Amino acid sequence: MYEDKARTEGSTLKEVFGYLDAHLKLVNSREDVSSPPSPRGFGQGGVLRGVEERLKRLGACTELCVVPFGQVLSSLSVVPVGQVLSSLPVVPAGQVLSSLPVVPAGPVLSSLPVVSVGQTYSHLLLAGLGEDPGKVTVLVHSDVDLQPTNRKDVHSHVDLQSTKRKYDDVSLLPWLHVVEAFQAVKQPLPINLKFLVTAAEGTAWEGVEQCLLTSKKRFLSDVRYSCITLDRSPGTRFPSVIYGLRGLCYFTVEVTGADDPSHSDAHSGVYGGVLYEPMGDLLFLLNCLVDERGKILVPGVLDDVVRGEEPPSRDAEPDVEELRSTLAVSRLAHKEDSRRLLLHLAWLPSLTVHAVEGAWSGPGARTTVPLRVKGHFSVRLVPDQTPDKVCLRFTEYLNKVHRHFRRSPNAIRVELTSSARPWVQDPDDPHLGAAQRAVRTVLGGSPILTRGGGSSKMAAVLQRVTVGSLVALPLDLNMGGLKVLAAYLHEVGQLDTNWH
Amino acid sequence: MYEDKARTEGSTLKEVFGYLDAHLKLVNSREDVSSPPSPRGFGQGGVLRGVEERLKRLGACTELCVVPFGQVLSSLSVVPVGQVLSSLPVVPAGQVLSSLPVVPAGPVLSSLPVVSVGQTYSHLLLAGLGEDPGKVTVLVHSDVDLQPTNRKDVHSHVDLQSTKRKYDDVSLLPWLHVVEAFQAVKQPLPINLKFLVTAAEGTAWEGVEQCLLTSKKRFLSDVRYSCITLDRSPGTRFPSVIYGLRGLCYFTVEVTGADDPSHSDAHSGVYGGVLYEPMGDLLFLLNCLVDERGKILVPGVLDDVVRGEEPPSRDAEPDVEELRSTLAVSRLAHKEDSRRLLLHLAWLPSLTVHAVEGAWSGPGARTTVPLRVKGHFSVRLVPDQTPDKVCLRFTEYLNKVHRHFRRSPNAIRVELTSSARPWVQDPDDPHLGAAQRAVRTVLGGSPILTRGGGSSKMAAVLQRVTVGSLVALPLDLNMGGLKVLAAYLHEVGQLDTNWH
């Protein structure tokens, strides 16, 4: 820690670090990004209003936007961006944050009208802290997850304090604490900071992209650097800075035996043997997707995977022992060769079948023949693969397999329910160097650059709608994560602002 | 209806039928076999005590037995059969039922101690009505299902009155009403009647069989004919009498990726591509069980299926149109050839995959890699197949496929969680003729003899533990089902009693 003391000596960072060290316990006892905690029932609007209040107390200008759902891209251009839902006046731009008193936290959310998540729109919160033309502007994207973190089957979220936190706010809360720290020690932020806050559950992502595109000249006009935070992935060498993420296609394939959708399941004693059972068809289809070594069997899907692309030598191979022990599996794939594991973790697509829905799933043993079953699977995409093309390939393939190989009269329906484009950044961008220096300042060592296996809807969107570069910082809040963010802002503030 | 009036003219049946006709509405308004209704919490013991009270009010001698669970067969011979749980004295044998006043129904159950279903024993209710040595003795087996009938996915139960009934009592309630009818018109039952009542949920079937074997000389000593009732199966020609049922092997196969059983699922973004995913293994295994035409692919499983056995001409082929419309499917298997459908409905084994357990099953889309998944499937067996041999074949096959073809390092575990032996009766037994005549008396036409596709644990057990023959009567309560039972008792009473 602090091995590169020269970098903090005499700088504002030292004071900020001191504050963060002193207040870490206080930080950990805070409950929720939208203080006071928003009950789940408040929905997306309510949660983002809570976040908005919190940001206003830090002195930010805010806009809570309404983003229409669905295929409304052409009509969206006439929807005024930043249709302000809250009745609060927009704080005039240009206010210097440090001169604003920090408003004491209080239960203001409950007095706001409750806006539930509708089927026709979602919300998007834009906020800005500072407009100093002598500083670069950094955009932070946070996705405030509306799902409670007590999901047993999702353990990819770092628990700042698992028992008290209501929402998955690891992507936003640390930033708020860092801003508070700069304000507390009465130091100006070294950059202009912008926040783009979404609420994952029920967000109309296409609408968000379109909304940002139309506001490119306004909200995004001065954004030079963007940053997202990720949970630290066990097994991956740390400290590190991420310059790419895989994309995602989430599919469902439904097999329907009964013509009447309301028809209940049959009984295997009475009808076992005379039906084309939908479950059999579904198992056949799902089993045709990927081989035992993880190779996707759908023709054409791998055509666009960049041939010969391999992790550069700077990308450290994973720690096989840690990976195996984190997953508690006896053996990893690809002969446990760390180089090949790195390749399959982020440089190649992967496919996972997540669930079979529609059959009974309670305790006990029921002898039903489900007449309507749905398989869930997703594909992680790598650069040069597009969700559209991958979706087309899978749809064609599954229909062909069903019709020509399975030859079942049951109906199938393939649906792409969610997608994210892959994102990869030029690893030579100076922005990544600044992020690496920030990590080294706090954690020491030589932070590596690497790509991640996960997906972020916004990463590729930000790459398209901004002119600048994006980094993803994997945070381990137990390992000085807040200080990494402070140091990152400091380092980016040192970069050449002459970029036009 | 009543086309064969000659058979009822001047007989006791005419009066019984008249009573049933007059009281049908009353019958339908009754709630539950164990009046007053037993809340689910009473468990098996409580429900069977309710049934016992009801039978006592009809004048029956009863014994509520305790049957140990599990592999205790050798020690069972020393457990005294009929260990009486209830403190009520056993009514002395030989009482003539019609001379007993019918005790008015009342809430007696609530005053009895609550006995919950334990892990170590289950209950079995034995009852007898009459011991006239000049009459044959008929044993009725009823399985009182403890599960509420509002299970959406089980629609094989005839709803006498779906909104009010608590338990699946179609196998017992009609018999009680018929006995009441004989008593109401002051006619003796034409036979001695015995009841063997089990409560499906949590019943120790092996223990029941052993218990019956040891009591063969006592409770079963005079039993000549046995009868079970089944729901009427749509598509099957009706009226009919069933002389055989398929057996059952219910399997689970679990694939475990993580060594630590408490380990939660992985995230496909972080780890997708480097794991031997258990779901992929499970899909592969389940897909190897049966082909698209329903043929079981496990070597040796079909070896014991009686070669060349085909439905005799008396077994009517199903109504293809009714079958297709009941199931609301566009096309049935086996080219919709009614003869082949009949073969596959009851003369050949079938296999159904019921569910995949262990993956998330709620709404939405989660990108987890489940590390522990379990497939549920069952096989319907036909005569000459035994659950033991079938279990061995499946276990060997799945382990071999996993080890030699899938070559996955994940652990698998195949378990036979439930089984029932197939049952088939000599179709020339005069007992079946009596049952056919009873059906014809009420419903007219020429009732066919056929075999059913379902399974009954007790059918094969009764065949082994009694010296007599068994029939299964498919009941349609909307079509004179109660009268069919009354006519059946009458017809069986006419059979030659000289059978020793």
Automatic annotation (TrEMBL), chains A, B:
UniProt keyword Metal-binding, yes or no: yes
Residue ranges annotated for the Peptidase M20 dimerisation domain, each copy included: 243-403
InterPro entries named among the record's database cross-references: Cyt/Met_Dipeptidase, Peptidase_M20_dimer
Coiled-coil stretches noted in the UniProt entry, renumbered to this chain: none
Record keywords, A-Z: Hydrolase, Metal-binding, Protease
Gene Ontology BP terms: proteolysis
Entry GO MF terms: metal ion binding; peptidase activity
A matching Pfam family: M20_dimer
Record keyword Acetylation present: no
PANTHER family on file: BETA-ALA-HIS DIPEPTIDASE, CARNOSINE DIPEPTIDASE 2, ISOFORM A
Full protein name: Peptidase M20 dimerisation domain-containing protein
